[in-house]
Design a protein that fits this description.
Glutaconate Coenzyme A-transferase, 8-stranded mixed β-sheet, 3-stranded antiparallel β-sheet, 5 helices, 11 strands, NagB/RpiA_transferase-like, transferase activity, CoA transferase subunit A
Length: about 230
């Protein structure tokens, strides 16, 4: 295989270089499309004072929620936090800093960061606590607030299929935050359900080009259901 091969054989290699105090951008929505093994490796590493940028913080015993158990997360930048009792407890006690961000704004912050755009104007949040202290500019008679882009030292994402060069395809709703998150990390690590050879993926179907990806690892996923609802 050529020097473009980005596959690593261990989770330790996948997350090499992550240290205390870094910012990590994580793909997924709820428990859908989350890089389960990479999160477990961060827990094993025991790194502290991390800032995580993710739609939410998993649940109490799964996803990013497991990093709250040893208080590895110092700050969460999220749009939804309602499924995690430990998160609520640490927020109310002041142990966890939380920056609530509208969902579409959060996605655009990641996308803009990956595109090299430092900030953008959006109407979302104007006139609410989200807009307090932010620059306001009027376009076509409507006020907009200035939101800054987000980047991180690491981005961790989950792919349905990835080739050895890092080209990725996400399956169905796992396309949620993964494509944007993948562009916004200085080091982007992909945990894939299946790794294929270069040329096996249809170029027109690729969601994340390998140019954004630094490492790829074969994952093994539990695919837990976040909230099971059954008919009576």
């Amino acid at each position: 295989m050529s020097g473009f091969d980005k596959v690593v054989s261990s989770y330790a290699d996948a997350m090499q270089g992550l240290t205390d105090g870094m910012t990590v951008i994580a793909g997924g929505f709820g428990l859908c499309g989350i890089p389960e093994g990479l999160i477990a490796e961060i827990k094993r590493m025991g790194v502290k004072n991390l800032t995580f940028v993710s739609n939410n913080c998993g649940v109490d015993d799964f996803g990013l929620g497991i990093l709250l158990e040893d208080k590895q997360i110092k700050k969460m930048i999220s749009s939804y936090v309602g499924e995690n009792a430990l998160f609520e407890q640490q927020l109310l006690s002041g142990e966890l800093e939380v920056e609530l961000t509208p969902q579409g704004t959060l996605a655009e912050k990641m996308r803009a960061g990956g595109a090299g755009i430092p900030a953008f104007y959006t109407a979302t949040g104007y006139g609410t606590p989200v807009g307090e202290g932010k620059e306001v500019k009027e376009f076509n008679g409507r006020p907009y607030i200035l939101e800054e882009a987000i980047t991180g030292e690491f981005a961790i994402v989950r792919a349905w299929k990835a080739d050895r060069y890092g080209n990725c395809i996400y399956r169905h709703t796992a396309q949620n935050f993964n494509p944007m998150a993948a562009t916004a990390g200085k080091i982007t690590v992909v945990e894939a359900e299946e790794i294929v050879e270069p040329g096996d993926l249809d170029p027109s179907q690729i969601h994340t080009p390998g140019i954004y990806v630094n490492r790829v690892i074969q994952g093994s996923f539990e695919k837990r259901i976040e909230r099971r609802v059954l008919a009576k």
